[in-house]
Amino acid sequence: MGLVVGRFDRIRLETGAHFLLIHRSGKDAAKGARGHSSLRAAVDTEIEVTDTPQGRCAAITKQRDLPTKGERIGFALQPVTLGQTKLGDAATTRVVGPSSAPEKAPKGKRMGEVEGAVVEFLAERKVGVKRAAVVEHFRDQYEKSSIYRAMRSLVTAGAIHEAAGMVCIAVAAN
Questions:
Q1: Rounded Cα gap, residues 78 and 99, in angstroms
Q2: How far apart are CA 38 and CA 45, in angstroms?
Q3: d(Cα 81, Cα 75) in Å, to the nearest integer?
């Protein structure tokens, strides 16, 4: 890893350019990025991007020369229609927009893929949705039992509310 870091530094010094390295955490995000410790040691600024039921956030987890460590910047992914596809469907994308940073989550279990998909689906709606409609929306992506299990865990975590067979997002992820 020392050789790799050395090559990054050489590119940066010879070009005078900024060098951005994108990395991921392991299965247990609380343990931080995986890999050799020399990688983190060589970094000047480390920003962790998280997606929780309460919202999305970019948090400065390491800052070598400035007092900004710990700052949290909230953001939302807002849908934008670009036009229509050849089949007449809407061609859409997402752009980053401002949002309040969610409260810092307590250490613990991270949201899974199905939970994240359900939260994103519900966050896009202004009113509650029948549980069966959520399952129907994801029928081609996830097993029915996985979707119901995800909704139960999100209710338990306080990320979504449930009443009379309807579910809605607990805190709007603007």
A1: 10
A2: 14
A3: 19
According to DSSP, residue 104 is labeled P
DSSP, collapsed to helix, strand or coil, labels residue 112 as coil
> Quick one: tokens of 82?
């670009």
b/e burial code for range 1-40 (CB count within 10 A of at least 16 → b): eeeebeeeeeeeeeeeeeeeeeeeeeeeeeeebeeeeebe
pTM, full prediction:
0.54
CA distance linking residue 34 with residue 27, whole number of Å: 9
pLDDT tens for 39-82 read: 778 888 888 888 877 889 998 888 888 888 889 999 999 999 99
Among 50, 170, 49, which Cα is nearest to 118's?
170
- Per the DSSP assignment, residues forming a β-bridge with 161 are 168
Q: Where are the domains of the chain?
A: 44-169
- Angstrom distance (rounded) from CA 143 to CA 76: 27
Provide the 10 A C-beta neighbour count for residue 72. 15
